[in-house]
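My main concern about presentation is that the manuscript never shows what a single data entry looks like. Each protein is reduced to its one-letter sequence and a matching series of backbone shape codes. For the editor and my fellow referees, an illustration may be useful. For illustration, here is how one protein appears when written out as sequence plus structure tokens:
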Amino acid sequence: MKQIERIDLAPAAIPDAVAELVRSGGRMQMAYAWYREPGQLELRYVADRPKRAGLVVWSTRPRGTMRSVTASSPMMGWYEREISDLFGLAFEDHPEPLPLVLQPGAAPVLPPLSKDYPDNRPMPFTFDAGGAPEMSEADVQRLPFGPIRADVVESVRLDFFYVGEHILHLHPQLFLKHRGMEKRFEGADLAKASLLAERVSGVGSFAHALAFCQAVERAAGCEVPIRARMARSLLAELERIYNHLHYLGHLADSTTLKVGQAEGKLLEERAKQINGRLSGSRFLRGLLKPGGLRRDLASLDWLGARLEALRIDAAAYIARLEDSGSYIDRLVTNGRLARQVAFDQGATGPIERACGLDRDLRRDYPYAAYDGLPIDVPVLDDGDACARFRIRCSELMTSFTVVQQVLSLIAAGPVAAPCLPVPQCEALGWCESPRGGCFYAVHFDDEAVLTRVKIKSASFSNWRVFPFTVHDSNIMDYAINEASFGLTVAGCDR
């Protein structure tokens, strides 16, 4: 199957193409802009065709403004706003024509991703508390919460509009610590760029680096050795294991089940210790490079037994959580997300699978060694916090199975191949991270140097979806609902 097809379209044809794709059962993935030539902006729209028939990328060169496609695909609203903020392109008929990445009061001298933006010049900024909607009803209260929150939770400002304990509306203000990661890739050599990808989101280090490396390899026409592909699948599942164990501990904490929190974090620690012994990094950093691995893994003889012991203890832990009535009661019906809303607004990963959407990039568009591995994709229809919890539990057990399968199949051999991009090459790479689909688009200039890297992270998608589960809910359930999404702010803000 040809996984990607690129088609050039006139700007006026884009809205009709998106509408037809959605009508036929397809789904948009993302949109982004880049400068194909100095001063010439080009837009790319990435879409998932119906029935897993492959990805399509539409290219267009806007003249003046573009028509918004949000009427057909609401999830594209954030991508259009991001393009407006960073490239200065306006979208006609946008339902929410407000800044997204730029904070209220920011006044860049040029669009921030313009090639002519002055180096080392701070962006002019004046304080402006705007952004949240106004509520005129006298009995509606507004609670601004954050950006500094308790414990080690990342920075985000949450404006709650509520009556009593009933939340009418949630307005999250993200991107407070936007790091300009996509800009940092420009001109970077591949070794540095791989390290940058690992640092987009600490708890998704391997997934981001894998999506980036696979994009570069596809652009360069590089064939990664089978041992490296097997090792990549192994490491990706190890990242999923510690992420899901962390999730379970954090979710238990949000329900005040402190023993459950402690046990989940202890299991997470054991998983990270396995990672450290295997790779030298608890977060599996420093291993990937375009073409394969930087070095071979240490001996794998001990790994199967250690993981089996962890699996047995994790299964017993999950059984105890399931048997805790006070815990399950706080999850059932909490933060329910309707299937259609999940589809329209771009939910991904365990969030969409808990709403009845059967999608997983490991199975649908296999990469690394996943075309030969058993990927059981659990799907539930309830769409609430309990469904999200149970999807994670099922995926955790599947990851243990996949890892043991890799260990039975992996054989000796080289772990890297030459990977030399050619001038003006480009490609997409992807990975099913623990939180959902992660995409990287890479573009190289006339000298085969990185000129544009676009990152689509799972948390960017799921932060857009999350408020739909908070509106018309109870404020006492909020923390549990947020924990059930497993969001990261760094992954969203980039």
